[in-house]
């Protein structure tokens, strides 16, 4: 018997990896809708898309952190109100919802990993918009809604920190990279694998609803990630120079500490993700990232 899955935001980095993971498994009848195919701010369109589905994985989001500062209402329409439409449609049709959120719901002033139940206090508009989505899931789907917070996501689809470092390596002798922000670089394929496992556990009635943290284990800084990306790609890591975040002023404040705890996964019977420095070599061996690394090596 097949189970119908809907993936929203299916054209993005994570959405594409979730589709790949579901296709590699068995028993899933998968529909992927890009942001052009489904506007989550349209409640009628959302209901029509959700109707008949058993599991909805919401990868649709406003992700431009800096632009959200000047367009918080628009960002919240997608990240908050749009999620509410999805949650209400799931509640009405009996579908499970796996919703992606972010470490930006926390202030970033901790020294120990944030537990799933730690108090939230976003420091920017993007974080506030994502927190509104979390509240919608908790309110409307207390028993069938799953919010998975992630952070420092990179992968083979679209621009991200790892691809940017490899692209800049072709054009610059040295790169200044922030060394005073701490987090957990997370390969989107590893998160997609964990999400699909959570969805299957939820279908089997084994995973308690609520909040989970979907990030790699271990921690580093952007500087540490850049150096390791260079080293694994056959580039000289000494070309990376450490600087403070103040060297790169941005419209939106960034949490200085984005390390999340993973205490709820054992209750769902789903393993925590591997360490970030175990994920990165596997990601860099994928054809797309390996090609970027090869181009960086041959450009010098």
TrEMBL record:
Pfam families: RmlD_sub_bind. One of its GO terms (molecular function) is dTDP-4-dehydrorhamnose reductase activity. Pathway: Carbohydrate biosynthesis; dTDP-L-rhamnose biosynthesis. Its EC number is 1.1.1.133. The keyword Methyltransferase does not apply. Residues 5-285 form the RmlD-like substrate binding domain. GO terms for cellular component: cytosol. GO terms for biological process: dTDP-rhamnose biosynthetic process. Keywords: NADP, Oxidoreductase. It comes from the Bacteria. This is dTDP-4-dehydrorhamnose reductase. The gene is rfbD.
């Amino acid at each position: 018997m097949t189970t119908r899955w809907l993936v929203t935001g299916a054209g993005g980095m994570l959405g594409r990896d979730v589709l790949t993971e579901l296709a590699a498994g068995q028993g899933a009848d998968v529909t992927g809708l890009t942001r052009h195919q489904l506007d989550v701010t349209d409640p009628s369109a959302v209901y029509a898309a959700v109707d008949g589905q058993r599991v909805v994985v919401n990868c649709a989001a406003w992700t431009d952190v800096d632009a959200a500062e000047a367009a918080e209402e628009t960002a919240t329409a997608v990240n908050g109100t749009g999620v509410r439409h999805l949650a209400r449609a799931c509640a009405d049709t009996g579908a499970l919802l796996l919703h992606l959120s972010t470490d930006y719901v926390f202030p970033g002033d901790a020294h120990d990993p944030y537990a799933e139940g730690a108090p939230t206090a976003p420091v920017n508009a993007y974080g506030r918009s994502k927190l509104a989505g979390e509240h919608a899931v908790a309110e409307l789907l207390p028993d069938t809604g799953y919010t998975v917070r992630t952070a420092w996501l990179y992968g083979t689809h679209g621009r991200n920190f790892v691809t940017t470092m490899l692209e800049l390596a072709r054009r610059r002798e040295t790169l200044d990279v922030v060394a005073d922000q701490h987090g957990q670089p997370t390969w989107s394929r590893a998160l997609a694998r964990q999400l699909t496992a959570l969805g299957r556990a939820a279908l089997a009635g084994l995973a308690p609803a609520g909040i989970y943290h979907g990030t790699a284990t271990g921690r580093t800084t952007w500087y540490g990630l850049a150096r390791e990306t260079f080293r694994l790609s056959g580039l000289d890591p000494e070309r990376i120079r450490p600087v403070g975040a103040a060297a790169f002023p941005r419209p939106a404040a960034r949490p200085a500490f984005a390390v999340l705890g993973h205490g709820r996964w054992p209750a769902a019977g789903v393993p925590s993700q591997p360490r970030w420095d175990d994920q990165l070599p596997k990601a860099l061996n994928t054809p797309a990232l390996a090609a970027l690394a090869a181009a960086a090596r041959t450009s010098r």
